[in-house]
């Protein structure tokens, strides 16, 4: 191949790359840009505003509606509870699976895998009946608990892969220095796998924040999270601007988290069976 | 290396107990209910395997299964080449790629019931870009009554939603390839294709299996988006496995719904087991230096 020909293909390749990535960004961001734009437009006649006018009225209306404000609180409460609960049971389990083999470990892995991929619809009815008996309906605690079903397995996978990247000698030297297992966890292991904990938090947050099947069935009359509060806005006349403003707000925490874990997001997925 | 130590169960116990209460208890209850005709929860009759016989004997089950399998196949055929292609386009370890990864991760944090709302709004004739564009081009896109359009719409939405996951995982697999491998290939004058086929693709296998499992299960049991877009229509053309189950639950057919749930759970367990087998084979291959 002559030098000019090679030069030409490399220009062609760069062009292809730029066009491809530009199309990708348009495809991904297009629907979101539309959402953000509609959230700033008045879509129902409000007091003195004509339809179609640019305005902040939708955002004002969110904070004027106590149900919507409460739903923001409910969502944040159940997601935080879920992340804390998930990590506190997943961390020791991930450590055990990474450092030891034991009777039944493969069956445990199969169980984790199965629960991660069991669709919520399959369990929704019975979970509703179980939680009704345990008095956990219509409260953020119920949602936080049931979301552990798919988040605990994810957190265990991600943390196991980060812990396995640390050599055993690291643990042994801490034990030789006389640290207890609990002390080792808090003072040595957790700081060493901080990026892994961040990635695990991110994925737990995401999967819990976006889930709607369990959230719907567990909060039929109260304690509604954002997702269900938006659903309740649909009616005979739907203020689509308000719906979009609420959607935009529901994206803020997720996007902020993406920004925080952007450097590590692609590292947590080396899985072992 | 891992040593054998059964005391490790103590560390796994909290997670195991939590999952047992949240998952195993409802599963056992599902099995129990599937053998009863349930009028109210106090008033029920033993019917044995009747629900299972009805279910296995009904052509609707196989039609729904066929639709779900077709949907999953299309999802995999579209999203995997596309996701791997995107990952190959991204330059390794730069701020540019981290920007693109961030952009692609955004649809993952959109609540699932918002996704159809966003897309329906995009298609609306008076506010949506896409709706106005289609009207302007005089193209008709009838996702309510034209089955092919409904399918295409669902596939586009699903791809928008999940392409980021596939691309991020593919990118993480590609980043784990040591630079000397690629340099050696370049020195040997390997073509772009053979570099991909013999160096990059084998290294992607582990992460892509993970992506495949997540994508296969979520698309096989797609519920929220499909229900919101067309509730299984037109003419049941998008009535997937989960939609049929959801319908039974909302009709308070507890017994048959429980039997169906139990059957679906067996399917899930089977897929998880297949996946574990293939991962384990992958691990042994690695240990043998292959």
Automatic annotation (TrEMBL), chain A:
Domain ABC transmembrane type-1: residue ranges: 72-261
Keyword rRNA processing set for record: no
Regions that span the bilayer: 21-41, 76-97, 109-131, 143-163, 184-210, 240-261
GO BP terms: transmembrane transport
Pfam families: BPD_transp_1 (PF00528)
Keywords attached to this entry: Cell membrane, Membrane, Transmembrane, Transmembrane helix, Transport
Primary subcellular site in the record, as a coarse category: membrane
Membrane topology of the entry: Multi-pass membrane protein
GO cellular component, one term: plasma membrane
Localization per record: Cell membrane
Protein family membership: Belongs to the binding-protein-dependent transport system permease family.
PANTHER family, per the entry: ABC TRANSPORTER PERMEASE PROTEIN (PTHR32243:SF52), MALTOSE TRANSPORT SYSTEM PERMEASE-RELATED (PTHR32243)
Listed name of the protein: Carbohydrate ABC transporter membrane protein 2 (CUT1 family)
Automatic annotation (TrEMBL), chain B:
Subcellular location, record wording: Cell membrane
Recorded GO CC terms: plasma membrane
SUPFAM superfamilies linked: MetI-like (SSF161098)
ABC transmembrane type-1 domain location: 65-275
InterPro entries attached to this UniProt entry: MetI-like (IPR000515), MetI-like_sf (IPR035906), Sugar_ABC_transporter (IPR052730)
Chief localisation class: membrane
Family statement drawn from the similarity comment of this UniProt entry: Belongs to the binding-protein-dependent transport system permease family.
Name used for this protein in its record: Carbohydrate ABC transporter membrane protein 1 (CUT1 family)
Lineage, highest ranks first: Bacteria, Pseudomonadati, Pseudomonadota, Alphaproteobacteria, Rhodobacterales
């Amino acid at each position: 191949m002559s030098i000019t020909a090679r030069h030409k293909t490399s220009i062609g390749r760069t062009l292809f790359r730029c066009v491809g990535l530009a199309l990708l960004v348009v495809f991904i961001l297009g629907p979101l840009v539309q959402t953000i734009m509609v959230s700033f437009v008045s879509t129902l006649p409000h007091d003195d505003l004509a339809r179609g006018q640019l305005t902040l009225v939708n955002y004002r209306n969110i904070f004027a509606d106590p149900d919507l404000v409460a739903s923001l609180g409910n969502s944040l409460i159940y997601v935080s509870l879920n992340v804390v609960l998930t990590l506190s049971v997943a961390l020791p389990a991930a450590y055990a699976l990474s450092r030891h083999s034991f009777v039944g470990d493969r069956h445990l892995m199969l169980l984790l895998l199965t629960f991660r991929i069991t669709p919520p619809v399959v369990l929704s009815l019975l979970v509703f009946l179980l939680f009704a008996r345990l008095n956990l309906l219509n409260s953020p605690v119920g949602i936080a608990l049931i979301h552990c079903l798919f988040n605990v397995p994810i957190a265990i996978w991600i943390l196991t892969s980060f812990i396995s990247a640390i050599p055993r000698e690291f643990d042994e030297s801490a034990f030789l220095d006389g640290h207890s297992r609990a002390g080792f966890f808090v003072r040595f292991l957790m700081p060493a796998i901080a990026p892994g904990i961040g990635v695990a938090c991110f994925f737990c947050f995401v999967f819990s924040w976006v889930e709607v099947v369990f959230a719907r069935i567990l909060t039929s009359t109260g304690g509604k999270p954002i997702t269900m509060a938006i659903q309740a806005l649909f009616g005979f006349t739907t203020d689509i601007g308000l719906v979009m403003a609420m959607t935009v707000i529901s994206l803020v925490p997720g996007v902020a988290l993406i920004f925080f874990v952007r450097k590590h997001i692609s590292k947590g997925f080396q899985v072992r069976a | 290396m891992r040593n054998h130590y059964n005391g490790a169960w103590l560390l796994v116990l909290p997670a195991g107990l939590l999952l047992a209460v949240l998952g195993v208890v409802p599963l056992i209850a599902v099995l129990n209910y599937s053998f009863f005709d349930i009028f109210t929860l106090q008033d029920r009759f033993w019917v044995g395997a009747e629900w299972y016989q009805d279910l296995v004997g009904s052509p609707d089950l196989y039609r729904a299964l066929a639709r779900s399998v077709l949907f999953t196949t299309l999802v995999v055929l579209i999203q995997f080449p596309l996701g791997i292609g995107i990952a190959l386009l991204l330059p390794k370890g730069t701020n540019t790629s981290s920007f693109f990864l961030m952009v692609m991760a955004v649809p993952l944090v959109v609540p699932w019931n918002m996704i159809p709302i966003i897309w329906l709004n995009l298609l609306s004739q008076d506010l949506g870009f896409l709706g106005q564009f289609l009207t302007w081009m005089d193209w008709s896109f009838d996702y309510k009554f034209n089955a092919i359009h409904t399918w295409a719409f669902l596939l586009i939405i699903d791809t928008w939603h999940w392409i980021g996951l596939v691309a991020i995982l593919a990118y993480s697999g590609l980043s784990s390839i040591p630079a000397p491998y690629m340099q050696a290939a370049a020195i040997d004058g390997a073509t772009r294709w053979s570099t991909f086929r013999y160096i990059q693709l084998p290294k992607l296998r582990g992460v892509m299996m993970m992506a495949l499992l997540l994508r296969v299960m979520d698309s096989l049991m797609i519920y929220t988006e499909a229900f919101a877009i067309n509730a299984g229509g037109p003419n049941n053309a998008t009535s997937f496995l989960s939609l049929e189950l959801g319908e039974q639950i909302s009709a308070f057919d507890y017994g048959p719904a429980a039997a169906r749930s139990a059957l679906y759970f067996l399917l899930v367990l089977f897929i998880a087991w297949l996946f574990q087998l293939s991962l384990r084979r992958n691990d042994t291959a690695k240990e043998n230096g292959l």
